[in-house]
Amino acid sequence: MASPTRHETVTGPAPLLALAGVTKVYGVGEAAVRALDGVDFEVWPGDFVAITGASGSGKTTVVSILGCLEASSAGEYRIEGVSVQALSADVLAALRNAKFGFVFQNYNLLSRTSALENVALPLVYAGVGRVEREARARAALAEVGLEGREESRSNQLSGGQQQRVAIARALVNAPEVILADEPTGNLDSRTGRDIMELLSGLNRDRGITVLMVTHDPACAAWARRRVVFQDGRIRSDTRGEVAA
Amino acid sequence: MTLPATASLAFTALMRNRLRSLLTMLGVVIGVGAVLMMQATGRGATAYVGDTISAMGSNLLMVIPGSPRRQMGGGMTAPLFTVADVEAVRRRAHDLDALAAVTTRPMRLVAGANNRIVSVGGVSPEFLSIRGWGVADGRTLTREDERQAAQVCVLGKTVRDALFPGGPALGQELRVHELSCRVVGVLEAKGASAFGMDQDDVMYLPFSTFSRRVLGSERVAFMMARAPSPDRIDDLKAQLEAVMRERRRILEGDEDDFAVRDPRELQAVLDQVTGVLTTFLLGVAGISLVVGGIGIMNIMLVSVTERTREIGVRLAVGARPRDILSQFLVEAVALSAAGGLLGILLGLAGAWGLAKAISVPFVFPAAAIPVAFGVSLLVGVVFGVFPARKAARLNPLAALRFE
Questions:
Q1: Least Cα separation, residue A136 to chain B (angstroms)
Q2: Which DSSP symbol is given to B212?
Q3: Which ipTM value was assigned to this complex?
Q4: pLDDT digits (tens, 9 = 90+) for A14-70
Q5: A215 within a domain of the structure (yes/no)
Q6: Domain positions in chain B
Q7: Which residues constitute the domain of residue A132?
Q8: What pTM, to 2 d.p., does this model score?
Q9: Residues of B in contact with A126 (CB under 8 A)
């Protein structure tokens, strides 16, 4: 695991996200499953992390906890030094709104809703007015290369386009971290590569921290840091050059 | 999230399932519509009965045979009054402004080739003035007619039109039983009574003429008495009772075999009946609203389940639990409010149609409308809270993964 000392000199005094001894147990008693088992993990601003591992290794769980979609069973999670456990549901919602952007394998767009409205959704909950909402959503769609498709409904878009809409939605409220769970899992390899280019560009050009769960080594190769999960623990955490 | 944004979201969601939304509202529509319709119709009928009763004449009392504990028309076995009774009342009741003896009988009238069975009344000359009933044509019945037992009569408009279609009625002769009499007046049209009877299907002739020349009996079916002012009605009533008890030799403690009725009592009885009916229908409407509310709750629970993924997405992009709560609550309230509005419109239309059908005036139920709307909002809140809370308490990750 990377030593914090080295990072302090490079990127700042405190990690952006830090898990310490985090455990997640699903179910109770005999049926209990230990999805995460005492994980220590730090994410630094500007990181581009690929999380890999066999299914059931805990990689999706760790991203869910990092994105405040779920609480841990034990251990501590700090965001910029602030412990998440004590935060109210409303503060967690505000964190998901402003600090994180989510990209899912199945896109999770609202059906029968235009691309523009889908992208503007986080701004609705951020309390942004209609006019500004629309302008920012248009800009985000342009950034992912979907200019002119603003009024298209989700079901009128291809998989790759839907995932671009999802990325625009993740981007629209200027998050510090994008959490992507198998973003290319439902796409063909060529479209997948486009999506990876998009994510890696956001990381490179806008300094957005990207955490990506993937089982595809080709995707993982885009990341500068690769973390491998096994049985709810981190097996390896390595830094390398971007393959592309 | 702002309320207008939430409301427009709710509207969009409801418009997506138009038929379902409409069917869900139906319980509330029926409940609210029924309440409003009955309110309006009840008030219209009460107002109309009130109008009809005051049209009978003001400060009026009726003396009818039969025990006062029996309801209207229950005097079949008690003896009728006599002319002597009428004279005694006229002499001894101090607070009497006017008194009329009346005997009516359905009889066939013949005029030339036309004939008709009509309610024929032998009446004292005061009768028409007590009832505040004037003539449209000709003259009314006079004391002179009564004294002479003159062979004259006045006709209601319906009778006039039936017996003398197209021609003049005044001065014409008609035959009632064996008696020939001359038409001296045509009464003003009164229209139907509160009970649907045609008040213009009548013929009146002097009491003396009717009793002596037609019936051969001086019995009096009932008396109509007028007090000089409303505050003396009760005094007059006591005097009428005292005189008639003595005339009919009713002992202290025995029950009267006649009754002095105040038409205002009829109004009170009708108000009471209307009140009971309204309360009963409010109960039925209440049940309908509860059923409607349960329908809304049911469909909202279905909607929450169907849209679990959507809720997950909203939570993931930063919706607070209270945003989700208000989204679904506003949706439930929008359903019930729309149902309420529709119910109000249908209730008003129904009340208007019913008023026209039973020819009573349509009373716009101004006070009931905001109450009905408020109740429908309340139904939405009460039955929307549970599904909305269920939605708001979803775990974001579990909601996102819901299949």
A1: 15
A2: I
A3: 0.91
A4: 799 999 999 999 988 888 999 999 999 999 999 999 999 998 899 999 999 999 999
A5: no
A6: 3-52+267-401, 60-260
A7: 111-167
A8: 0.74
A9: 318
